[in-house]
Amino acid sequence: MRAVFERQDTLPLIAEVFREFGYEGATFSRITERTGISKGSLYHFFPDGKEEMAAHVLAHIDAWFEAHVFTPLARDEPREAVAQMWRAVLDYFHSGRRICLVGVFAMDETRDVFADAIKGYFQRWIKALKQALVRAGVGRARAQDLAEECVAGIQGGLVISRATGEAAQFVRTVRRLAARVDDELSG
Amino acid sequence: MRAVFERQDTLPLIAEVFREFGYEGATFSRITERTGISKGSLYHFFPDGKEEMAAHVLAHIDAWFEAHVFTPLARDEPREAVAQMWRAVLDYFHSGRRICLVGVFAMDETRDVFADAIKGYFQRWIKALKQALVRAGVGRARAQDLAEECVAGIQGGLVISRATGEAAQFVRTVRRLAARVDDELSG
DNA sequence: GTCTATACAGTGATAGAC
DNA sequence: GTCTATCACTGTATAGAC
User: Fold this and answer.
1) Confidence at B109, pLDDT banded by 50, 70, 90
2) Would you say the pTM of this structure is higher than 0.90?
3) Given A2, A109, B38, B84, which is the most exposed site by the fewest CB atoms within 10 A?
4) Does residue A53 sit at the B interface (CB-CB below 8 Å)?
């Protein structure tokens, strides 16, 4: 009996291995152990091996954020979209117990292959948030500042939470950032 | 002709390799290539191998921050110490072109051996900053919030700068954080 | 499609010549 | 103290049985 039958289904499992051990630390033995899929089958799903796995995992994450964060910010009523962003972020990162794989890969310059994907993820996030803030009436310069501050703050909160082992620190960080945005929107 | 003769002198070079490639990616061949020291000599300096190297590198970084940031925050006139912290941070991280190795190691849970050192680094930073803010007249709860926000913001700014390739983003992040602290101190 | 068997390079680590 | 030679092992990757 196997729980996984489609390549798409393996991505979340493989993603967790990359998250826990980083790119170099995510070895085939750890991936087979976690997924229950042998090396041979993994190469059947991902003919180009580890690099292809990582690329698909990144694309998977990107699609999630595109659907749950970036697109709402660009399309929905801005205040509601921002509120939705905070909910999505707390949910996705398990209230600080889960780190950002894109951030992890960003810190590792071993493989420039992913540089564009990583850069695009953060730039689109900042841009979408900025434009939502502008649509909500915030000045362009201030909106850019706030958006950079929020996206950077989220990453930093994840690092500190993971480092100290206190997930609550991430939740506090998000609350502070949300409050600052609210102040700006109502003030 | 060799430029390095003492173990202490090798640490900054080895640290850069860990910074660029992460713990797993920092292989002996890369370290020997960067330092010009053979494996045999590296094991002479660090009998316990890579793990000992990483431990010494972390201790080296910790000592630098202790001397240039934490101790000044605890001892000097608080406003001046905070200003010194921003200078030290911009300087140490090369205005956003260099990442935080402690942050990189924090994201990697391969080796719990360093967990305490990593945790201590961030906790002492937050605590020292908080106490300096308290000595400068900020309320305890607000000081704790601000300190967490600053240390997390620095880490996040480094991640975003590295990801986007725009070091200037880190400088802006630091400026924003410094302005917020200044507001609190004068307001 | 899934697996086992295997190739081959590179890993951390050790021994020993000088 | 510094290096080279070598170790056992694990890494990614491939071939091929079923």
Assistant:
1) confident
2) yes
3) A2
4) no
